[in-house]
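Quick one: structure tokens for this chain, please?
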Amino acid sequence: MTTQSLFQLCRVGYIALVLLLSGWFIQQGLEGTYSMVFCLMFIVPLLMPLKGIIQGNPYTYAWASFILCLYLLHGLTLVYVTTDALIFAVIESTLIGALLIGFPYYARMRGRELGLGLKKKSKQDE
């Protein structure tokens, strides 16, 4: 798989996740299940890496996986607890699982293309 195609897949998957979760939490806020302030606070962390993901910054793809872990916990908890929103929870968990594989893989491939990475310590520096 090329870096460009992986970039497109990750970007589309991330935007789909943002739309899915935004719709879910706004609906929960409007129905009164949760307060609207809580729902908006739950969406904000997901929006933090938006600019870097759209631009294709490999560093953003690397650290955005940590944010996705919060939402994976939400999805897996819903799978375990609810019967009403089971399909939503499975879709959310599956999408996040795919992004948790795709994001670091893209960051690694793109970082190698750009020559980024940790510099090895030479023996003279010791």
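Residues 29 and 37 are 8 Å apart (CA to CA).
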